[in-house]
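Problem: given the chain below (450 residues), write out its structure.
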Amino acid sequence: MSNNIKLKKGLELPICGVAALQCEKTVIGDVVALNPCEFRGLIPRLLVKEGDSVLCGTPIMADKKRPDILFTSPVSGTVSAVVRGEKRKLLEVQIKTDGKQESIDFGKKEVSALSADEVKNALLTSGLWTSIIQRPYGIIADPTQRPDAIFVSAFSTAPLAADVDFTCKDEIKDIQTGIDALTKLSDKGVVVSYRKGGKSPLEKLENVQKFYFEGKHPAGNVGVQIHHLRPIRKGDVVWTITPMMLAAIGKLFNEGKLNLMRKVAVCGPAAMYPCYINTLPGVKMSALQDFIGAYPEDLRIISGDVFSGKQIDINGTLAFKDNQISILKEGNEYEMLGWAKPIRWSQFSTSKTYFSWLTPCRKYNMDTNLHGGERAFVVSDVYGKVLPMNLFPVYLAKACLSKNIEDMEKYGIFEVLEEDLAVCEYVCPSKINIQAIISDGIELMLKEMA
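Solution.
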């Protein structure tokens, strides 16, 4: 197989609001929260109670089905609230920070001298095991299994995505340590995919298999890369992890402490000042008021990118896996006979419906307006024009809707997560929520195949 893969399909969303490559300040806030709902298949068991003092790395929750998988505190402070929903479902654990960031001493370790079991135990004890995602299905990796390979995408093509080269340029040593550690857990080591033609500092990494991808979004999605490097079949197991979490693993071994501090891009057309900040997962959006603006009720705040991120409110939190906060205006305005106006220079169209295609370099001040409602889900080739995977996305979605497990397997449910088909949802003329359909299909597979 060639180390250079060119993808001809995809879509670059010309949205304005890219974050300036400068880090403005460090923001943690008074309260940081852990949200177990972010993790697919997790049944959490609470290990603390309100009023308990915690350090960075103190266990807060465990998985009931796999109790060795721990979720630990990213800050030092006091457990201020345990938020539950219907039937006492655990929704959130809030920790009031003390500003000291004191951590449990896990002990510095020389990775080269550790066995695979010792590496695994260190990751489980610190809570960093939760950063390793298993495919198929996008669940937390099973510690009892050994994957065929571990995949890392060293770039992102999502709209306004955080620049991996910028966020990780000062953490190459820690990322290398993280790779050396994970290599011990896989049969075929770690596979890293780079953007072809770029000059990434991550290309200095050693002890990895290197591949180069060229193309539009979703070329940077690790799921698309796996599809072209090693398609997942029934019974296969591979793991994925981000460079950001590799750096956290490296710091665990090099410093002996849990350090989840990361550079986060605050971006989007409605961002007050698109830039980067240093912060932690679980930080509340209320702590970022200077960047979000004074009237958040008129805005849509998204943890992640505008295609596949999660909508949150001003009291919502940055997800554990995210290093991007996207801010857009709510598209509540009604445009009479909008469909009959071909001369619409302010609107972007993937199908050249509007004359705005004559200005291909323009960036658009986009909002959340759908410009229409959901309609019949018809079979067409619209998805195939933007999805660089050898799948039948319409048939896969309809198999998920009909809960036909045999067809779901045949059409590629093992190879995709919601984010991989997000671009299909954007271009869908029927306004179908493809990501929700795929999510329901994956949940069905987990339930039926358990």
